[in-house]
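Q: How do we represent a protein-ligand complex in a form that can be generated token by token?
A: Start from the inputs.
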Amino acid sequence: MARTRLLADYRPFPFALTETRLRFDLAPTATRVRAELDFAPAVPGADLVLDGAGLRTLSLRIDGVEPDPAAITMGDETLTISAGALPGGSFTLSTEVEIDPERNTALEGLYLSGGIFCTQCEAEGFRHITWYPDRPDVMAPFRVQIRSDLPVLLSNGNPVAAEPGLAEWHDPWPKPAYLFALVAGELEALSDRFTTMTGRDVALNVWVRPGDLPRAGFAMEALKKSMLWDERVYGREYDLDVFNIVAVDDFNMGAMENKGLNIFNSKLVLASPDTATDTDYERIEAVIAHEYFHNWTGNRITCRDWFQLCLKEGLTVFRDQQFTSDMRSAAVKRIEDVVTLRARQFREDAGPLAHPPRPDHYEEINNFYTATVYEKGAEVIGMLKRLVGDGNYRAALDLYFDRHDGQACTIEDWLKVFEDATGRDLTQFARWYTDAGTPEVTLVEAWDEDEAGGTLTLSLSQTTKPTPGQPDKPPRVIPVAVGLIGRNGGEQRPTELLELTGPTQGWRFEGLGSRPVVSALRGFSAPVVLRHDLDEAGRATLLAHDTDPFARWEAGRGLAIDALIARVGGDTDAGAAYVRAIGSFLDGAAADPAFAALVLRLPPEDEIATLLHDRGIVPDPDAIHAARESLARDLARAHEGTLAALFDAMEVPGPYSPDAEPSGRRALRLEALSLLTRLDGGARARALWDGARNMTERMGALASLVRVGQADDALRGMETEFGANRLVMDKFFAVQPMAAAPGRAVEIARTLAGRPDFDWRNPNRFRALIGGLSANHAAFHAADGSGYDFVADWLTRLDPVNPQTTARMASAFETWTRYDAGRRKHARAALERIASLPRLSRNTAEMLTRLLAAGG
Ligand code: B3K
Ligand code: ZN
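Then emit the structure tokens for the protein with zinc ion bound:
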């Protein structure tokens, strides 16, 4: 049933909640929850509306007395006590309910994961635990009592009592219900301590299942680095006596920032060289940091309502990106972030699910934890920082923390601190938060040799295509960082930030002597599509000489894209300039292997489809796949010797370390391998698999073997060695449908789905296989509709069990309307089949309505 929520409908909660006391008597199928809530009226005469879902209510009292039943109205997920039944002043509401964690397969509220009780309350999960004003602007200190025979009983805040069968926790920092957490089970801790900048001693624990302790050390190190970094860079100190992290196997997303008790998907905690790849290590470090950073940006200062989600998520992503840049290579991190942004957010912005970073309506908020809210939310902050400068950014953040500590805030509050700290008017800038769509910026150059010793005029113009519900897009302020490189490779002008505010503007650069190559959108200074007709020689110059690493990488990317698009269009030999430029680049590749690995990687097929669609061409997934494969082969053939030498030279001797330097070498080695496999049929990959000394080498080798259909032995070996390790087996389920030849991938996925260890109720396993297939562009978009059908069948099956993960994965279909009529027919049929499910969840229903609306 649709229930549209509107930003415009926001009203403050008419009561203050001064304390929340909870008591849990844990039992797998019948947990009792007693709640005592101390309310003080803020608006006289208001009814008290509480949220609740799936609760068996045993009692409800106001100051110890049962109210007249006539004063209580039950709604869909609400309970209203009419004002007349409430005392005029403060009162305590006590309730007792029973809930069933074992049958909670949706993994929202209190549930069991492999015998461990755990919770997930963001966004609206707390209402599955007890009657409560489940909205982020109602904040209270919590006292929690847990009764259970299980040995470890955790909640938020500081422990105040622990005896066999009972634990009590007190969280003094007022928080909304979405930050509540409880964990109970047989767990072991890796423990450490941290002394904060003012000398407070904090106990740190990473809780895992017995047996997993040896894989918890990296997460602990990442936590300590994050705590130190936030003190050093943002002046933010931790504020409780303990900080607990718990790893669980069944989790709908990556992790959750509950106050003092972060709960993590085990794949983002557990790591050892033989089970986790370099990429896993980097993600673990980033997500541990992200959740920790939420303690200030999210918890101490939270969101007034869920429309403001990017207030905490955009800022916290921005902070975790800064952290990773500091811990590793800033250039590499920036390029990786742009690759992800284009693959996920630009794709979202260009399709039926487009929405602004701050949406103004939704049916189901869980559908808005998106690339736009997170990653574009972070880009918007990056632009703000670029526009006001680093010093002003820091001053604005200091003001934000001072002014809003303990509050539930809005994007307007956020922009106001920047206006107050810098004196800058951010009215136009605010459009980045309210307007959906990716602006297209066109750069046109005019060169006049004779004027003022050689003058270059750059004219920039912007347009943004309509998005659902937003036909008109007024111009935004777009910071475009530009530098000029001489034809001989030297930098002629350092980076300058051009602020495009109107539809079209021009800038003049005089006294240049000879015509330079324009290096535009340096550092990816704004999340826009830049159209800049740079010729092949210009791009090659930038790839060879640009001082800005992003622009350098982008120049190589541009050459690759031109080659791929020409090949898709039938010019099968296109790309000589690209192949040549990569040849020169490879000579110096060993100097920065991580960067070189990114330069060597061809754009993903889905991105090529997006680019074709942007140019008004209907993408043919088979032709795109063929073009990408042929270009990879030509590249390998042209540089076989160099690539083979790099493959050998980039071997990392000695014990494994996940640090940036050795990871970069392995990344380059595996890029070289992936190209060489196109020539040697898998010989090198097999040898690497046989001699692999860590999971990074194994997975690199395995992906190459799967691609050429030579992976049977390796896959058997993987099962024998790692059959009992869930996280490694997730990789087994993911790599096959993802890397297999498109013609075989659906059949491979079907076979995998028939295995007894395809535990599809586990979100990681489901995402591995179903997400793996949807990530294989030409297989998912198979002309006969088999890819769509496979994914739709599984979404149909998962929806009654876990709506949140189903709805999330339905976004695989977000590009369906850009393909040909035959494919569109299959996709529509698949989507309509899901939509016709008798009891479709609100989550999935909303996604399908939006997806199908795009088909006209
Ligand atoms: N805040 C959580 C995400 C909650 C998702 C709810 N559907 C994790 C994070 O962004 O840190
Ligand atoms: Zn977050």
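The two ends are 22 Å apart (CA to CA). The pocket of (3S)-3,7-diaminoheptanoic acid (ligand 1) is lined by residues 122-123, 253, 255-257, 290-291, 294, 313, 366, 369 (CB under 6 Å).
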